[in-house]
Amino acid sequence: MTKEERYTQLKAIISPYLPEDVTVDTITPESNFIKDLNINSANLVDIVLDVEDAFDITLENEDMDSMQTVQDALRIIESKVA
Amino acid sequence: MPNRVVITGLGVCAPNALNSISFSNALDKKVSGIQFHAQLKELNFGCQIAGKPLITQDHLNKYFTPLQQRGLNASGLVYGVIAGVDAWNDAGLLPTDKEKTDWDSGVIFGTGILGIDKLREAIYLIDEGKTKRLGSTSVLQTMASGISAYLGGILGCGNQVTTNSSACTTGTEGVLMAYDRIAAGKAVRIITGSCSDSGPYVWGGFDAMRILPRNYNDSPTMASRPMSATAAGFVPGSGAGAMVLESLESALARKAPIYAEVMGGSVNSGGQRSGGTMTAPNSEAVQRCIQEALKQSKVSSEEIDAINGHLTATSKDMVEIENWSRALGRDGKDFPYINSFKGLLGHCLAAAGSIECVGTVLQISNGQIYGNANCEDLHPEISRIIDPSRVLQQTLTRAPDVVAKASFGFGDVNACVIFKKFYN
């Protein structure tokens, strides 16, 4: 899977958690999940579970703590899918 | 002077109907919601039949966003949201805007246990050391107040938002809690109701107590027999009922439809004394509850046109009839019409009171008294106290003016509410 494909897949994972007034086009690598995309902080744990399932990886607590933006998530995924 | 309180919206998610219009039709035409469930057979249940609302995916999509549906595994929550949202819409009300809270409206929506399938899912994951996999939905779907929290959030309610729990009395108790709060001027309107999960993990304990019928697995619609000589125990059910209670002043100002007036009622407990136990009612407490309900409602015994009983189809039905008769001081042909909807629904446990309150109010607004199912062979102990003509076999087209509804629950708890046709 290329970097671009991983980004596309991540956007698809995030999409259902976006509030009604935020569209998937709004997502950029720099987007902060909570501040920019207005995702409910409780749903961040669900995004992590979906990422684990989609990429067949396991995220540790420290990974979750450092996952503030879309780019953070991509970096963590890339480091795990080796 | 306490505020007068009226009912302006109804919603129901019952084993035999998924909205209040089809529910009234189902009660009128005696449509049973009790079916055989293969899962109960596979699990070696003695009673393999139950009442369960048949929800489709299309139906679910109307009430829950795709995000809300992710990991949704709490049937009672689903039933409660469907009934609650329907009642709100029926009252001509809409969810508030995103930035606006409705401080005058509250939610009192009860349950026995919520999301037991979700809880089971969580227990398996935790025992496997996978607690993290619970995600964010486990707590919200298994906290008892999950149902009032969901409804409060969907509708934007800013008054009291809470969940009551008193076993099979829950729904009827909730009506009185809402009534009290509106009568006292602490809220303008409250959506009240109750819900109960479906499935083996809710029903299993009752099967183990051997209080469910075991000989009707091949004839499910015959199994629930309130007041019958051949009653063999209650059929487990599930679902939700909901109604919007509102101050008369607000209902008139909004020109809302008014189904009936809540005159008042009473809740009490027998203290598990004098024959009362964890599972059986203290008859003195039941009679006091009914009499106090009349007193609080300023309604005399003679004014009661019809009763919707608790009447679950156990040996306690006779005791209940006797208690009504003594409490009202009426018997024989002078006794009010009495019915039980459990012959068609089964016993919907924590949801029973609210679903049956909806049916009771529909009798007033539709001008009907619904017939009883499966009691052609009225129990002789009952016909000794009241004339068989009081136990309608078919629906009677006659508008009852005043109807009493009671529910009794484990823990020796009772609730009785008096509904009346609305006269301005």
Topology, pairings included?
The complex is a heterodimer of chains A (82) and B (424).
Chain A: H1 3-14, H2 44-55, H3 61-66, H4 70-81
Chain B: E1 5-13, H1 20-28, E2 34-36, H2 38-42, E3 49-51, H3 57-63, H4 66-69, H5 75-90, E4 105-111, H6 116-127, H7 137-142, H8 146-155, E5 161-162, H9 170-183, E6 189-196, H10 200-208, E7 239-247, H11 248-254, E8 260-269, H12 283-297, E9 306-308, H13 316-328, E10 337-339, H14 342-345, H15 352-366, H16 380-383, E11 402-409, E12 413-420
Parallel strand pairs in B: 4-5, 4-6, 9-10, 9-11
Antiparallel strand pairs in B: 1-7, 1-8, 2-3, 6-7, 8-12, 11-12
Helix pairs in contact in B: 1-15, 5-8, 9-15, 12-13
Strand content of chain B: 15-25%
Query: Structural class from helices and strands of chain B?
Result: alpha/beta
Strand tally of chain B is: 12
Morphology call of chain A: globular
Q: How helix-rich are the residues of chain A, as a percent range?
A: 40-55%
On the 0-100 scale, what is the average pLDDT of chain B? 97
CATH topology of chain B: Peroxisomal Thiolase, Chain A, domain 1
**Can you tell me the residue ranges of chain B where pLDDT is under 50 for at least 5 consecutive residues?**
none
Biggest sheet descriptor of chain A: none
Order of helices and strands of chain B: EHEHEHHHEHHHEHEHEHEHEHEHHHEE
Give the termini separation of chain B: 16 Å
What is the overall number of helices of chain B? Answer: 16
Summarize the structure in words:
The complex is a heterodimer of chains A (82) and B (424). By secondary structure, chain A is mainly α. Chain A has helices at residues 3-14, 44-55, 61-66, 70-81. Helix content of chain A is 51%, strand content 0%. The longest helix of chain A is centred in the first third of the chain and has 12 residues, at 3-14. Chain B has one domain (1-424): Peroxisomal Thiolase, Chain A, domain 1. Chain B is 35% helix and 17% strand. Chain B has helices at residues 20-28, 38-42, 57-63, 66-69, 75-90, 116-127, 137-142, 146-155, 170-183, 200-208, 248-254, 283-297, 316-328, 342-345, 352-366, 380-383; strands at residues 5-13, 34-36, 49-51, 105-111, 161-162, 189-196, 239-247, 260-269, 306-308, 337-339, 402-409, 413-420. In chain B, strand 11 and strand 12 (413-420) form a beta hairpin. In chain B, helix 1 (20-28) crosses helix 15 and helix 12 crosses helix 13. The A-B interface holds A 16-17, 42-43, 45-46, 49 and B 66-67, 70-71, 132-133, 135-137.
